[in-house]
Design brief:
The complex is a heterotetramer of chains A (about 425), B (about 250), C (about 350) and D (about 300). With about 250 residues, chain B is α/β, with parallel strands linked by helices. Helix content of chain B is about 35%, strand content about 10%. Chain B is globular and about 55 Å long. The termini of chain B are far apart. Chain C has an eight-stranded mixed beta sheet with strand order 3-2-6-7-8-9-1-10, sandwiched between helices. A four-stranded antiparallel beta sheet of chain C has the order 5-4-12-11, with no helix packed on it. In chain C, β2 and β3 form a beta hairpin. Chain D is α/β, with parallel strands linked by helices. Chain D folds into two domains: about 100 residues, Translation factors (Elongation Factor Tu (Ef-tu), domain 3, Beta Barrel), CATH 2.40.30.10; about 160 residues, Nucleotide-binding domain of ferredoxin-NADP reductase (FNR) module (Rossmann fold, 3-Layer(aba) Sandwich), CATH 3.40.50.80. Chain D is globular and about 85 Å long. The chains are: A alpha+beta (about 425), B alpha/beta (about 250), C alpha+beta (about 350), D alpha/beta (about 300). At the B-C interface, β1, α2, α6, α7 and α9 of B face β2 and α8 of C. Bound molecules: flavin-adenine dinucleotide and iron/sulfur cluster (SF4) (3 copies). Flavin-adenine dinucleotide binds next to β4, β5, α2 and α3 of chain D. One iron/sulfur cluster sits at the interface of chains B and C.
Chain lengths: ~425, ~250, ~350, ~300
């Protein structure tokens, strides 16, 4: 039987921002499969012009409510590279811990609030409060930990306050760090229960080979700065990020698309894991789920996020031990305003994020460019959709099922749409 | 529901986002300690960021974000017709927020800067009240979780919520901070409405007024203080216009 | 009062042992101002070496350890339409090290209101009686005018008071609690030489005051100059920001707020320190404001310091630390305001 | 080795365990503990004002609560706030505390939604009272504007209960509109049983209003005042008592025989929060009842 299908998801729910899915199948043949971002663009790059560079991290944090710490860090790194500032080791550790808090916050939000309802067949986390109270409580405890972590290290979860050019402006207090350490240890069993929970779900079986781009770890799983790498063997310096992204624009989407060696690339947890598997401190968990590089199932991004959560919790404990052993008097470096150009690449929850600024001798931003992970994933989502629908139709799946699969696929990328039309 | 023998209502609420970072909605999803209790106080019928349920019957519409495209204006007008109470959520919705920095340039210029030869549609940024009537405003970039919760409670209890009338300095000093003006920075705490617990200054980030003006806001005096400290009009303006929330008190002086 | 001396080395041993057994609060350097001068605050310390004993003055006063900026007055627990009120006064004992004489005098003024007043405050009494105070003499700063207000010397209100006389401290022991603590630390009797050094040091400190504020007749002047233009002059600068009252060691006025928990099972009644400079200090239901202009509010703060309090307790409320003057973003300080008020024909 | 400072338990102090007695000052007690009360009756007086009857639930606390006319209490609505309210009822009746409350803001609006049986809290009584003992043998002039009749009810009850001790008593009462008149159902009783000379006036009459129209001071044309034998009690908004007292002053009543009540913002009732300070006077402990001479000499009183 040849089927016709017209799927139109207008403003996909449980994602950050506004995006639509259009699927058109005529007589069993795919005519059109589109991922269209319809979010209103905000023009941050234009607004940055003429602003003092110290204000740039404060402004660009507002690109995204979920990964504001990541944006601030990329922005700071770009400025610090432009002005030739070396930040103190302690500040680096504090920043990384803050970022870890954000990664946990974002990943857990996605896993429990946005993705899990699909697997548990409910519309949102709200009915789970009644039906799966235990799961909701685990989710809330883990999110709470992530929130507290950001609050202690960056002053606030959304739009951080104590990350500044040169380092950090206020050190966390040791008492809080002690408590945080305890809290993380206490939450490890919750993370383990989450792993058990996700082992019971059925991840759709879907493969489309693509190119995975991320930072390249040297000694550790990479988060802030370093070389850029792809699974197709491309290796570039941070400054050459444009060669990694090659942005272009499609008419039906307000967010741009990118490509590298093939027609699309993917970034995010799965990309990081594919490129840096050996540095993972939660390899055992990855093995339990059977992810090994190279994994080409985009749905496995959810699992990669979970693996990263455990990795991040372990690494945070190590970082906290180091911080607690050191005096915290040197937290920021002095610097002079001068002309310069710099790029900052940071692995935020959804993938690699670039900020690039040209700063004039008054310290004002002359030109800015920000390339967001979701932008880099858009093309991949778009082409995945086509492939997924074709496979599903061939397997005789019906409208509702295909629609749900499509939605789940987009959600698996955890797109941050308002981010992508910054 | 009852409290002290007084009948309470359970309002149907919806959250809608426009031009913004969705950080304010996230504050609500991030209230881990009280989320479960909160969900029993109100009936959430639309909350796209975390829920697939969509319904057209709601009493209170929370509007997040500024308005910057024709389709947003239409969507907002539709919501206004449906909702009994329209609440602007966050600095973007209340004042335009950081999006207003776009106003420094022409529309063509910003579109060209970002999209080059593939122009997209955009309008000069407006706050929600510039488009439809707004019943209540909750400022903050992002909103304060505690304050939001208290506002909802007041709504449910049927009593009026009052913002603090005094400026951020009170909370700043209550947190034992050292004044940032004294550290050579521009801080707008003295003219900004308190209620955020001085969260920025606690982290040594000066206040740029995301919560809008305090009831008593002696801008001429603060401006003179800043000028005497040697800040240029451009430096001062960069801060006072950052969230577009203080223009009401700063625009008449130049 | 018992007078002894303690060597500096023994003092360090003593403090470390106090720290080991108690929550201990002492001055620490926390920030730097734009000129690079250190800024101090009272904070919990974990070792003697963290204490900045030779600090100048703390940016905020000690007040918040006795009158916290936010303090729960009571809680209410609900069960259907029933409720029960719960009140707690339990305070863990703590020690504060390095308190200046003016700050002790500030506490004595608060004692007048909150311990000896018409309705003693159990919250304050609990905090005050569970705080062990160790005072320490210091050289005045250029802007200190506590001498003018008779606050440069504390005669009581502390457990221990130290004066640096070289390699040891001259020590006043003022409570049996304090005396008990010295059972295991060596302290010495006063010798003539100690006494001489003590007197000399006291004289030296007294001679170092540079700022004087004439207080004579000031109470009446407050009344007589009630309509003075001086208030308008300074009122125009005032940001109504409350900073002055927050850092002041003796400003104690407050507001009470109640909040209900989202669970509707619990309500909190909280006292929050306020400032008479804030716009709604004297505003009543319906919006009538008895002091709508910044100038009348600023005046009221001075009026209370130098007349209202005097009428009740025969002494001004101000101790002359000039914290308000340092912290005021608008540069309003009591020295200039009082000076202005005392002159004739001020513009 | 470590030294531990011993803990002082103030809960063990003599008066900390029992209920606070607000008539006994300068005693360490649980000053913020409320007496739990039940609302036993609610009378709707106008659209804006209701009369609430409260009963202190604990008999021991009820015995402690004795007040003098003119004093006020702090009324607690848990979760909403605590407000000062004059006691508007008889000081001789223990079982019932009468409070006449106008809808004005957060707490009062909520109270207007409350039902009989709702539990509230009170602390008090606080403040000064009208010196009714001193007025024995004299004429009394009771002058109220608007809600000012609420605090006047306490001295009225007192005089009722000791009617033979006082000479002529007159009530002068003015409101904005006829529908704002409070306690009209009691006027007959006060006039006929207790022999008061009652005068009413409104500013904005409606079609049914047959009485006097104008400001309260116009009532002076109707009332004979013997300045040497008269005490005056004046309650109402500051503008009103200023005009009234000025008039009484011209008639020749000494200023220290006129009593007014002041109203200010209050958060404690105990002279601590400073919100009610006028000049250097605390309205809550040195007031609210004050003679006019004192009020005249307060800075910024009116
Ligand atoms: C001595 C005294 C006696 C009073 N007697 C009566 C009376 O018999 N009947 C009556 O209806 N009203 C009386 N009032 C006024 C009454 O206290 C206020 O109307 C009431 O506090 C308003 O509270 P709210 O929470 O409804 O208003 P809001 O405007 O919400 O007030 C918020 C808070 O401000 C404070 N506040 C506001 N207005 C006043 C005020 N006028 N006085 C003191 N505190 C205030 C209170 O702490 C209150 O909780 C009296 C006031 C005083 C000082
Ligand atoms: S100006 Fe800013 S830093 Fe200074 S007291 Fe006010 S809020 Fe705090
Ligand atoms: S100088 Fe200022 S801060 Fe110090 S006691 Fe006097 S009024 Fe208070
Ligand atoms: S600190 Fe200065 S500006 Fe602020 S209220 Fe006090 S006097 Fe006014």
């Amino acid at each position: 039987m040849k089927v016709d299908m017209n799927i139109d998801v207008h403003h996909l729910t449980r994602v950050e921002g506004h995006g639509n899915i259009h699927i058109n199948v005529k007589k069993g043949k795919l005519v059109d499969a589109r991922w269209a971002v319809v979010e209103t663009p905000r023009f941050f790059e234009a607004m940055l012009r003429g602003m003092s560079c110290e204000m740039a991290p404060i402004l660009t944090a507002r690109i995204c409510g979920i990964c504001s710490i990541g944006h601030a860090l990329a922005s700071l790194r770009a400025i610090e590279n432009a002005l030739g500032i070396d930040i103190p080791v302690i500040a680096k550790k504090i920043r990384l811990l803050a970022k870890h808090g954000e990664t946990l916050q974002s990943h857990f939000l996605h896993l429990f609030f946005l993705a899990a309802p699909d697997y548990l067949n409910v519309g949102s986390v709200i009915p789970l409060v009644q039906s799966n109270r235990a799961v909701v409580e685990i989710a809330l405890r883990l999110k709470r930990l992530a929130n507290d972590m950001c609050d202690i290290l960056a002053g606030r979860t959304t739009h951080p306050v104590s990350l500044c050019v040169g380092g950090v402006s206020r050190p966390p207090n040791k008492e809080d760090l002690h408590k945080l350490r305890e809290q993380i240890s206490e939450r490890i069993p919750d993370a383990e229960r989450t792993v058990e929970l996700f082992k019971t779900i059925q991840v759709p079986d879907f493969i489309r080979e693509t190119e995975y781009v991320s930072l390249k770890g040297e000694e550790n799983y990479p988060w802030i700065g370093g070389k850029l790498v792809s699974t197709d063997g491309v290796l570039k310096n941070e400054n050459d990020y444009l060669a990694m992204t090659n942005e272009y624009k499609e008419d039906f989407s307000t967010s741009k698309f990118t490509r590298l060696s093939r027609k699309s690339v993917a970034v995010g947890a799965l990309a990081r894991l594919n490129n840096n598997y050996n540095f993972l401190k939660a390899k055992d968990i990855a093995e339990e789920f059977g992810i090994k590089p190279l994994n080409h199932n985009p749905f496995m991004n959810n699992i990669a996020q979970l693996v990263e959560c455990v990795h991040v919790m372990i690494e945070s404990l190590e970082l906290l031990d180091e911080l607690l052993d050191e005096p915290m008097d040197e937290i920021s470096s002095e610097y002079d305003i001068k002309e310069g150009e710099g790029v900052g690449a940071v692995e935020v929850p959804r993938g690699i994020l670039y900020h690039h600024y040209l700063i004039n001798k008054k310290g004002l931003v002359e030109k800015a460019n920000c390339i967001i992970p979701t932008t880099q994933n858009n093309a991949n989502i778009h082409y995945d959709l086509a492939e997924l629908v074709e496979q599903a139709v061939n397997n005789g799946k019906q409208d509702t099922e295909v629609k749900k699969l499509c939605e789940m696929l987009v959600r698996a990328y955890d797109p941050c749409i308002s981010c992508s039309v910054h | 529901m009852e409290y002290l023998g007084i009948e309470l209502k359970k309002p149907k609420v919806s959250f809608f986002d426009f031009t913004c970072c969705e950080g304010c909605q996230l504050q609500i999803a991030n209230k881990e300690d009280t989320l479960v209790d909160f969900l029993s106080l109100v009936e959430v019928v639309n909350f796209r960021e975390i829920s697939s349920e969509k319904k057209d019957h709601y009493e209170i519409a929370f509007i997040e974000g500024a308005i910057s495209r024709q389709d947003e204006i239409e969507r907002l007008e539709k919501i206004r017709k449906q909702a009994k109470l329209v609440v602007a959520l966050g600095t973007c919705a209340c004042y335009g927020g950081v999006n207003s920095l776009k106003k420094r340039f022409s529309v063509e210029d910003v579109v060209n800067e970002v999209y080059g030869h593939n122009p997209v549609e955009t309008l000069p940024v407006k706050s929600v009240k510039e488009v439809v009537a707004v019943d209540f405003e909750i400022p903050g970039c992002p909103i304060s979780k505690a304050e939001f919760e208290s506002i909802i409670l007041h709504l449910v209890l049927g009593t009026e919520f009052r913002f603090k009338k005094y400026p951020v300095c009170v909370e700043c000093k209550q947190n034992l901070n050292h004044c940032l003006l004294d550290e050579g920075k521009i801080c707008l705490g003295p003219i900004t409405r308190a209620g955020c617990n001085a969260v920025c200054i606690n982290g040594k980030l000066p206040c740029y007024g995301c919560r809008g003006p305090a009831e008593e806001n002696n801008w001429p005096s603060l401006k003179q203080i800043l000028t005497e400290k040697g800040f240029s009009p451009e430096q001062i303006d960069e801060k006072t216009s950052f969230f577009n929330s203080l223009t009401e008190v700063t625009k008449n002086e130049s | 009062m018992l007078y002894k001396t303690i060597s500096k080395a023994n003092f360090k041993v003593f403090i470390n042992e106090v720290i080991a057994g108690n929550v201990t609060i002492a001055p620490k350097m926390t920030d730097k101002d734009s000129e690079g001068n250190p800024v101090y605050q009272f904070q919990q310390v974990y070792a003697f070496d963290e204490i900045a004993l030779n600090y100048t003055k703390t940016y905020s006063s000690l007040k918040n350890f006795f009158l916290p900026f936010k303090e729960s007055l009571s809680t209410f627990q609900f069960d259907k339409n029933e409720w029960k009120q719960k009140i707690e006064y339990s305070i863990h004992p703590r020690v504060i090290v390095g308190v200046r004489a003016c700050d002790i005098n500030g506490l004595l003024k608060l004692d007048n209101v909150l311990m000896k007043g018409k309705y003693p405050s159990p919250y304050y009494v609990a905090r005050r009686t569970n705080t062990f105070l160790i005072g320490l003499d210091h050289e005045p700063m250029a802007d200190c005018f506590c001498q003018s207000l008779n606050s440069d010397e504390a005669l009581h209100g502390f457990d221990l008071f130290l004066t640096d006389i070289g390699d040891k401290y001259f020590m006043q022991i003022n409570s049996s609690k304090a005396f008990n603590l010295f059972k295991n630390v060596q302290i010495n009797d006063i010798e003539t030489e100690d006494e001489e050094k003590y007197i000399a040091e006291k004289k030296r400190i007294a001679s170092l005051f540079k700022t004087r504020v004439a207080i004579t007749g000031l109470s009446n002047l407050m009344d007589i100059e009630f309509e003075s233009d001086v208030w308008k002059k300074w009122g125009d600068k005032c940001l109504s920001c409350g900073t002055c009252a927050m850092v002041c060691p003796t400003c104690y006025c407050f507001t009470v707020t109640e909040s209900i928990d989202v669970s509707l099972k619990f309500a909190l009644k909280e006292k929050v320190l306020y400032s008479c400079n804030l716009v709604d200090f004297a505003e009543v239901a319906g919006g009538h404001n008895f002091r709508p202009e910044p100038a009348t509010r600023l005046k009221y703060r001075f009026y209370h310091q130098h007349r209202g309090f005097v009428e009740s307790y025969d002494e001004p409320k101000c101790v002359g630390c000039n914290r308000c003057g340092i912290a005021c973003p608008a540069g309003i300080n009591p020295i200039d305001v009082i000076h202005d008020l005392r002159m004739e024909d001020v513009k | 080795m470590s030294y531990e400072i011993p803990r002082e338990n103030i809960a063990a102090e003599p008066f900390m365990a029992g209920p606070p007695d607000f008539n006994r000052k300068s005693r360490l007690m649980q000053t913020d503990k409320v007496y739990e009360c039940m609302i036993t009756n609610i009378v709707e007086l106008t659209d804006m004002e209701k009369l609430f009857h409260l009963k202190i639930m604990d008999p021991g606390e009820s015995r402690l609560f004795t007040f003098r006319p003119g004093q006020f209490l702090m009324l607690e609505l848990p979760g909403f706030g605590e407000i000062p309210i004059s006691i508007s009822g008889s000081s001789a009746i223990r079982e019932r505390i009468g409070l006449c409350i106008r809808k004005a803001g957060k707490v009062t609006n909520m109270l207007h939604k409350a039902r009989i049986g709702t539990k509230v809290g009170v602390r008090g009584p606080f403040g000064t009272h009208f010196p009714l003992e001193r007025m024995v043998g004299h004429n009394i002039l009771l002058i109220a504007g608007g809600l000012g009749l609420a605090p006047l009810r306490a001295p009225i009850y007192w005089v009722n209960e000791h009617r033979s001790e006082y000479a002529d008593v007159a009530i002068m009462y003015g409101t904005k509109r006829p529908k704002d008149i409070l306690f009209d159902y009691q006027f007959d009783m006060w006039g006929k049983i207790y022999n008061y000379d009652i005068h009413l006036i409104v500013e904005e009459p409606d079609e049914n209003w047959k009485g006097r129209v104008g400001l309260i001071t116009e009532l002076f044309n109707e009332v004979d005042i013997d300045p040497h034998r008269t005490y005056a009690i004046v309650c109402g908004p500051p503008v009103m008592f200023k005009f009234v007292c000025n008039h009484l002053n011209q008639v020749g009543i000494p200023m220290d025989r006129m009593f007014v009540t002041l109203e200010r913002r209050m958060h404690c009732g105990m002279g601590k929060c400073c919100r009610c300070m006028v000049g250097s006077t605390f309205t809550c402990v040195d007031g609210p009842v004050m003679d006019y001479w004192t009020v005249m000499n307060l800075k910024e009183a009116i």
